Amino acid sequence: MNFAKQLINWYTDNKRDLPWRNTTNPYYIWLSEIILQQTQVVQGLPYYNAFTTNFPTVFDLANADEQEVLKLWQGLGYYSRARNLHASAKYIVNELEGRFPDTFNEIIKLKGVGDYTASAIASICFNHVTAVVDGNVYRALSRVYGIYTPINTGKGFKEFKALAQQLIDKKEPATFNQAIMEFGARLCKPKNPDCDNCPFNTKCIALSKAVITDLPVKIKSVKVTKKYYNFIIILSKDGNTILEQRTGNGIWQNLYQFPLLETDKDASFSEIVKQIKLINYLKDQSIEVSLYNEKAVIHKLSHQHLYTKFWIVTLDSALPKGIALDKITDYPVPILIGNFIEKFNF
């Protein structure tokens, strides 16, 4: 079986017309690859267009304020990608004089860039023969070749990387890498793969043995933890509220949120009111407290589920150091907060 030839033939006839496929500019390819990490094309495309419009060159991105970058990224999740993107743009401009690195070993040094992204950029932009391995590739190769090695292990990565490197078309590495990613996204999907139209359906081991749903194999991850978040939305007499910027190294680092009370379990109304009254700028103030959502909003992250309630606190006095309500949409916030702001309609 000439895997590469059959794959490229299929891709030539079926590839989608996507903007990053009409360029070999490493800045644009890098942008697309970072945006599409953990993100499907249909969701990532508007963000790609927004970033290339607002930051048409790596110099524009490097010179942007981090808050502007995070705001443009809002809703895409995994915000460390945006922070790493911004940091790497500064590195390219300040340390490399705006020249994008052109070898795998140099590209992989950029923050937020791993083997897959470095391989994609190196092959697509500089024609280096280095195979990509991502979820689409794991899925396609495990099924076609009947591989049961768990993909989320070091052994699994080495085995699939070696196989992909063996299969890659040495003359057309860029086309091969884009083809296998497209194949996994369009035909060899996680659920309901289109086996009838698959170019490998007569050779696919998983199809012949009826084990499509068993592959690829992945070892179960750690147990998901529960957290209970209570956001305090303060509405002052002078039309202000409070937003606080998160610090530390969490997933929402440098994003803004309403004051947060985290509890060990779903707290009662009286327990939350008691804690609200201990907040410095609310002590000895005349306030009214109401619960916006009786049923907690469950925000699911890869490692934890956030059970979230929003508490409305009406303050019968001014909040001179607060943020005007009509300005809160200017701040980059987690999608959980953004959805509330949109629904509450300040």
TrEMBL record:
<keyword id="KW-0479">Metal-binding</keyword>
<dbReference type="InterPro" id="IPR044298">
    <property type="entry name" value="MIG/MutY"/>
</dbReference>
<dbReference type="InterPro" id="IPR003265">
    <property type="entry name" value="HhH-GPD_domain"/>
</dbReference>
<dbReference type="Pfam" id="PF14815">
    <property type="entry name" value="NUDIX_4"/>
</dbReference>
<dbReference type="InterPro" id="IPR005760">
    <property type="entry name" value="A/G_AdeGlyc_MutY"/>
</dbReference>
<dbReference type="InterPro" id="IPR000445">
    <property type="entry name" value="HhH_motif"/>
</dbReference>
<keyword id="KW-0378">Hydrolase</keyword>
<dbReference type="InterPro" id="IPR011257">
    <property type="entry name" value="DNA_glycosylase"/>
</dbReference>
<dbReference type="Pfam" id="PF00730">
    <property type="entry name" value="HhH-GPD"/>
</dbReference>
<feature type="domain" description="HhH-GPD">
    <location>
        <begin position="35"/>
        <end position="186"/>
    </location>
</feature>
<keyword id="KW-0227">DNA damage</keyword>
<keyword id="KW-0004">4Fe-4S</keyword>
<keyword id="KW-0326">Glycosidase</keyword>
<dbReference type="InterPro" id="IPR015797">
    <property type="entry name" value="NUDIX_hydrolase-like_dom_sf"/>
</dbReference>
<dbReference type="Pfam" id="PF00633">
    <property type="entry name" value="HHH"/>
</dbReference>
<comment type="similarity">
    <text>Belongs to the Nth/MutY family.</text>
</comment>
<comment type="function">
    <text>Adenine glycosylase active on G-A mispairs. MutY also corrects error-prone DNA synthesis past GO lesions which are due to the oxidatively damaged form of guanine: 7,8-dihydro-8-oxoguanine (8-oxo-dGTP).</text>
</comment>
<dbReference type="InterPro" id="IPR023170">
    <property type="entry name" value="HhH_base_excis_C"/>
</dbReference>
<dbReference type="InterPro" id="IPR029119">
    <property type="entry name" value="MutY_C"/>
</dbReference>
<keyword id="KW-0408">Iron</keyword>
<protein>
    <recommendedName>
        <fullName>Adenine DNA glycosylase</fullName>
        <ecNumber>3.2.2.31</ecNumber>
    </recommendedName>
</protein>
<keyword id="KW-0411">Iron-sulfur</keyword>
<keyword id="KW-0234">DNA repair</keyword>
